[in-house]
Amino acid sequence: MYISSTRLRYLLEIYQINETKEVIRSADIAKSMGVRRPTVARMLQALVSEQLIAKERYGEVYLTARGYQVASSYAQTIERLKIILPSMGMQMDSNEINEAALAIACILPLPGDCKKE
Predict the structure, then answer these.
(1) CATH number where 102 lies
(2) Total domains present in the chain
(3) 47-66: pLDDT as tens digits
(4) What angle do CA 71, 81, 76 make, to 5 degrees?
(5) The model's pTM
(6) How many helices (H) and strands (E) does the chain have?
(7) Range of the domain at 51
(8) Residue 37 forms part of a structural domain
(9) Tens digit of pLDDT for each residue in 2-35?
(10) What b/e sequence results for 13-43 when a residue is b if at least 16 CB atoms lie within 10 Å of its CB, and e otherwise?
């Protein structure tokens, strides 16, 4: 599975919020990401169509089992990349490392998605 960096950002934000809050609403996501609620609503619809989240109308947002697995896998990959990138000798601050890790993760297949030939 490949996912756009924007969709991945939202999915990971929901995943992170889910770690500390039992109930997630679009307003929580908007506040955490510093974006407007209509922007969040459009992205949530895209994530619903990909079966990564479930959303009640004007209500709560939930990661689906698939969404949780995808977010967890990408989060682990990004954390590994954040360790590897500085060792490559590139001079990057922590924000640049995070952005680079996210960009790389988006083009990598998730573990288990690689097709055997």
Answers:
(1) 1.10.10.10
(2) 1
(3) 999 999 999 877 899 999 99
(4) 30
(5) 0.86
(6) 5, 3
(7) 1-111
(8) yes
(9) 788 899 999 999 999 999 998 899 999 999 999 9
(10) bbbebbeeeeebbbebbbeebeeeeeebeeb
